[in-house]
C-alpha cells in the first residue's frame, strides 16, 4: 500500500503519522433541564479540515465553548492542541478562535485591537502583521475607527484577523463567514485552503454548507447533543450525486432539536 493518502485535494498526509490535535472523550453537558451534549466522543487529527454540522441548538457551540475552555463539561474530557479544557488560558494561547456572534471591544480602534492581540501573543513584527491583515480585509481606511462604529461585516473581519494574525497551527471557527459578502467569503475560504495545504488544522461550525463542502476533509453531524454520524463526505454519501446539504437533511431531517 502507498504510504501517502490524499486527505484533501493538494494535501498529502503520511498514513498513521498524524497526531490528534482535538480529543473529546465521553463529554456531556447539561444546562438546567436541557442536555446540550450527551456522551460525545470525537477526534480531529493534524491536517484535518473538520466540520461540525447540526441544526440550531444541536450542541455545536456548546462543544466549541468546551474546546476553547469557556465552559467545562459535566462529564468526560476534552483536550485542544494537547491542552485540557480546564486550562482556558493555555488553550487560548495555543490556538486561534473565532467565537459565535461575538464582537470586538467597542472602545478600541481596528488598529488598536490588532496591535493588542499581537502584544498579548508576544509577537515582534507587529506593524507588518497589522498592516497585512488590514490590507487583506481591505479596511486600511478604517484603522482609526472605533470597532463600535464599524459595520457588522467589518467587525467580523476584525474577529477573523485577530484569530489569524499569529498564524496558529489550529483554528477553531464558529460561523466564520457570517456577515461577509461573497467576495470575502471566497477570499477567506481560499486563505483557509492555503492553511490546509500547509498541514495546519481547522475546526469549523457553519450553516453555509456549500462552502463547507469545498473545504472539509472530515465532518460530523450532531443533533440533540449526540454525534449521529462522522467521516468523510464520500463515506457518508447514501446515493450517487448526494451533496453535503442532502446528507445533512437525510441525517437530521425534521427531527426534534434543542434550544440551547
Task: Describe the structure in your own words.
The chain has 260 residues and is of the alpha/beta class. The chain folds into 2 domains: 4-95 and 170-252, P-loop containing nucleotide triphosphate hydrolases (Rossmann fold, 3-Layer(aba) Sandwich), CATH 3.40.50.300; 103-167, no CATH class. It has 9 helices and 12 strands. A 6-stranded mixed β-sheet has the order 8-9-10-5-11-12, with helices on both faces. Strands 4-3-6-7 form a 4-stranded antiparallel β-sheet, with helices on one face. The protein has a two-stranded antiparallel ribbon with strand order 1-2. Strand 1 and strand 2 (11-14) form a beta hairpin. It starts with a strand and ends in an 8-residue tail after the last helix. 37% of the residues are buried.
H/E series? EEEEEHEEHEHHHEHEHEEHH
Mean pLDDT: 88
Q: Provide the structure class.
A: alpha/beta
Number of helices: 9
The residue ranges in which pLDDT falls below 50 over 5 or more consecutive positions are: 1-15, 255-260
Biggest sheet overview:
6 strands, mixed
Domain count: the total is 2
Radius of gyration: 18 Å
C-alpha end-to-end distance = 46 Å
- Specify the helix fraction band: 25-40%
- Report the portion of residues in β strands: 25-35%
CATH-defined architecture of the largest domain: 3-Layer(aba) Sandwich
Biggest sheet strand line-up: 8-9-10-5-11-12
Examine the coordinates and then state which fold CATH places here, giving the name of the CATH topology of the largest domain. Rossmann fold
Q: Regarding quaternary structure, how should these chains be classified?
A: single chain
Amino acid at each position: 500500500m502507498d504510504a501517502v493518502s490524499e486527505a484533501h485535494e493538494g494535501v498529502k498526509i503520511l498514513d498513521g503519522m498524524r497526531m490528534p490535535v482535538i480529543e473529546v472523550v465521553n463529554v456531556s453537558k447539561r444546562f438546567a433541564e436541557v442536555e446540550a451534549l450527551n456522551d460525545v466522543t470525537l477526534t480531529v487529527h493534524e491536517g484535518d479540515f473538520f466540520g461540525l454540522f447540526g441544526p440550531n441548538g444541536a450542541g455545536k457551540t456548546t462543544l466549541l465553548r468546551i474546546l476553547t475552555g469557556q465552559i467545562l463539561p459535566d462529564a468526560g474530557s476534552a483536550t485542544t492542541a494537547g491542552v485540557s479544557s480546564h486550562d482556558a488560558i493555555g488553550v487560548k494561547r495555543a490556538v486561534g478562535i473565532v467565537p459565535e456572534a461575538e464582537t470586538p471591544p467597542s472602545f478600541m480602534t481596528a488598529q488598536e485591537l490588532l496591535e493588542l492581540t499581537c502584544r498579548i501573543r508576544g509577537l515582534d513584527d507587529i506593524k507588518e502583521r497589522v498592516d497585512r491583515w488590514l490590507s487583506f480585509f481591505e479596511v486600511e481606511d478604517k484603522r482609526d475607527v472605533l470597532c463600535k462604529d464599524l459595520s457588522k461585516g467589518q467587525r467580523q473581519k476584525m474577529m477573523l484577523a485577530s484569530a489569524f494574525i499569529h498564524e496558529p497551527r489550529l483554528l477553531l471557527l464558529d460561523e466564520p463567514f457570517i456577515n461577509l459578502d461573497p467576495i470575502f467569503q471566497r477570499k477567506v475560504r481560499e486563505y483557509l485552503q492555503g492553511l490546509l495545504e500547509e498541514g495546519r488544522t481547522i475546526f469549523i461550525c457553519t450553516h453555509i454548507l456549500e462552502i463547507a463542502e469545498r473545504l472539509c476533509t472530515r465532518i460530523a453531524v450532531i443533533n440533540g447533543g449526540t454525534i449521529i454520524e462522522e467521516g468523510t463526505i464520500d463515506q457518508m454519501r447514501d446515493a450517487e450525486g448526494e451533496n453535503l446539504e442532502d446528507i445533512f437533511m437525510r441525517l437530521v431531517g425534521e427531527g426534534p432539536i434543542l434550544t440551547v
